[in-house]
Every structure is written in C-alpha cells, then in structure tokens.
C-alpha cells in the first residue's frame, strides 16, 4: 500500500465561528476522527487529536500558534493519539486512568487498528501491529457542568456516558454549537464496545435532545444542523425504545 508523506497526512479547513476542521483523509471514514481546533481570545482548544500516527504539533501549525488545552471527548485510540504532544490535557474523570495508562485493548486499538482501516498508510516507520497510544496523563479532570473558558468563549462540559463511561460533549450556549464526540454524529453509532452501556446511552440522548442546538461538530462524519440533530436523536431513541 502507498505511504503518505507526513506533510500530506492532514487536511485542514477553516470554518465559521473560528473553528478549524482537521482530518486524516487517508483513514477510512468510519474510523477517521474529526479533530476540532477552536480559537478563543485568551487561548485555544483542541477537541480530540486523531490517531497519533503523524505529529499534529509538527505538521499542523494552527495547533502551536497559541496556548492550547487539548480535550478528549473520550479515550478511544482514534481520538487521543496526539494528546501526549500537548502540555494541557483534559478528560472526564471516568476515563482519566485510560488516558494515563492506555493499552491496545482499553483504547480499542485491538482489534480495530489494521492496515485495512487505511486507504494509504502513514509514513514509515508506522506499523499497524506495533501501533499504540502514548501515555498522556490529564492536567485537568473534567466533570459534568464544568466550563472550559477561552476568554471570550465558554464551553460547558456535558457528561454523555453510553458510548464510553467518560464521554463528553462541549456546548457553547452563546452560539448553540455542540462538539458532540461519539455520542451522536451523522453515521452509524457504536453502542457495543467493552465499556458501552445502553441505559446510559439512552439517558444521554434524552438529555441532549433538550439542548437548543444550532450546529453540531461530531466525532466522525460531516457536521450538521439542529434539525438533523433532533431527527437523529429522536430516530435513535425510537429504535431503542421499541
């Protein structure tokens, strides 16, 4: 399989609301985490950090321009691979141990990480069988209701267990933007990992349905508006509560 140069590994696109979308286009869509960079007045925020097979700090300049807090929506391999590169790291308390002590098993790298999830491989010396997430102990532990303050922007931490115990979404009330992680996105949702819980998932979805949301930036697949957000949640709840 073709190998991609490190300078070509990431795709970067500036969106509205001082949000930058960073992706790894050579990872197949189902496994490809959306990485979100949010610009604030006093500091920036990174929501998730991809697989970590190519350095974000070295090859995506926007993440090094200013002080930054790297937030983990949860601790599966595709979301925390570059967290070790950042000095300030935040995660919900329920998954702090996973961020500090990742293994192939507890991050779901095993069995998902194989060459088959790529359309082209990362640069050498990457090896799927050798892949592992690096330790990145949190410098800030998050709980439900906490606020991540960027100076002129405030994001409320919403604990959304179900996909994983410490999953979170980040909600900006002023703009009605939600960074939803993997609890809801416009694609097939995963409810059967080793630490998923369907009862928690239902409760999280019911709670999210009450939020006035205008725009959703999810953990996977394209962003979408509030009407689609409510449609997705209601459809999922209807299916699970039959």
TrEMBL record:
Gene3D superfamilies: Ribonuclease Z/Hydroxyacylglutathione hydrolase-like
Highest taxon, organism lineage: Bacteria
Domain called Metallo-beta-lactamase: residue spans: 32-220
Any single Pfam family the record assigns to this protein: Lactamase_B
Family: Belongs to the metallo-beta-lactamase superfamily. Class-B beta-lactamase family.
Record protein name field: MBL fold metallo-hydrolase
Annotated source species: Shinella lacus
